[in-house]
Design brief:
It catalyses: (R)-4'-phosphopantothenate + L-cysteine + CTP = N-[(R)-4-phosphopantothenoyl]-L-cysteine + CMP + diphosphate + H(+); N-[(R)-4-phosphopantothenoyl]-L-cysteine + H(+) = (R)-4'-phosphopantetheine + CO2. The protein is of the alpha/beta class and 218 residues long. Helices cover 28% and strands 28% of the residues. Bound molecules: cytidine-5'-triphosphate (CTP) and calcium ion.
């Protein structure tokens, strides 16, 4: 879809993207995380740059090569990511939540390595704050786009999330297909309905999503 010259459709826009996964530490060497390559969020950030947007990337753990963006901030945990996002959100026109944010964190973090003893170790988990939902409910929110990671009832669950988090747009994505892959297959859901894109490279999906986004901003 992209040609040699990418039109600067997003010139003058400020876009923030979260990507990768957060890790909720139990002790200095162990944590709870989600599997996420970070590739979709990074592809979006790279394409947003190519399309002329001032791009801020808030990224968690990933092994993917990080694109060159206007501003990049590492956030290790869901709490770190929440604070980093909130610190820079006021200036943004658009917010893309692509990160696999851990839904829960251990209720305590040991400062020393936990030693093994009992056969069964019980860990209590506390729910993390929802970054995307809280950004979307700011008094003057940026245009918010969520990524719904689902293993079943993909479209239905994504639609429910769009309404629950009050998002103008959500991208539904079957995680088993997307995970770690260079390709992805997504459905865009907004107030006008749903639109399924052909399976394509994450880079091309990023271009299509940002081109669609542009039509919503005007
Ligand atoms: N998200 C977020 N902060 C969280 C959890 C999720 O910003 N604490 C964002 C993700 O980045 C994604 C969207 O919310 O854009 C949907 O994430 P997903 O895990 O699919 O949905 P949840 O609302 O967490 O619901 P569940 O995991 O129960 O399906
Ligand atoms: Ca979740």
């Amino acid at each position: 879809v992209q040609t040699f010259f990418t039109p600067k459709l997003l010139a003058g826009k400020k876009i923030m993207i979260t990507a990768g996964s957060t890790m909720e530490m139990l002790d200095p060497v162990r944590g709870i995380t989600n599997l996420s390559s970070g590739k979709m969020g990074f592809a979006l950030a790279q394409m947003a740059m190519r399309m002329g947007a001032e791009t801020t990337l808030v990224y968690g753990h990933t092994h993917a090569p990080r694109p060159l963006v206007s501003h990049a901030h590492f956030a290790a945990t869901a709490d770190d990511m929440y604070h980093t996002v909130m610190q820079h959100i006021a200036a943004q026109d658009v917010f893309f939540g692509v990160a696999a944010v851990a839904d829960y964190k251990p209720n305590m973090r040991s400062s020393q390595k936990i030693k093994k003893s009992e056969d069964i170790l019980t860990i209590d988990l506390i729910k993390n704050k929802d970054i995307l939902a809280d950004v979307a409910s700011l008094p003057n929110p940026p245009y918010c786009v969520g990524f719904a990671a689902e293993t079943e009832q993909v479209i239905e669950y994504a639609k429910q999330k769009r309404l629950a988090k009050r998002l103008p747009m959500i991208v539904a994505n079957q995680v088993m297909t997307a995970m770690g892959n260079d390709n992805n297959q997504v459905t865009i859901i907004d107030s006008k309905g749903e639109h399924t894109l052909d399976t394509d490279l994450k880079t091309n999906i990023a271009f299509k999503l940002l081109t669609h986004l542009k039509t919503q901003l005007d």
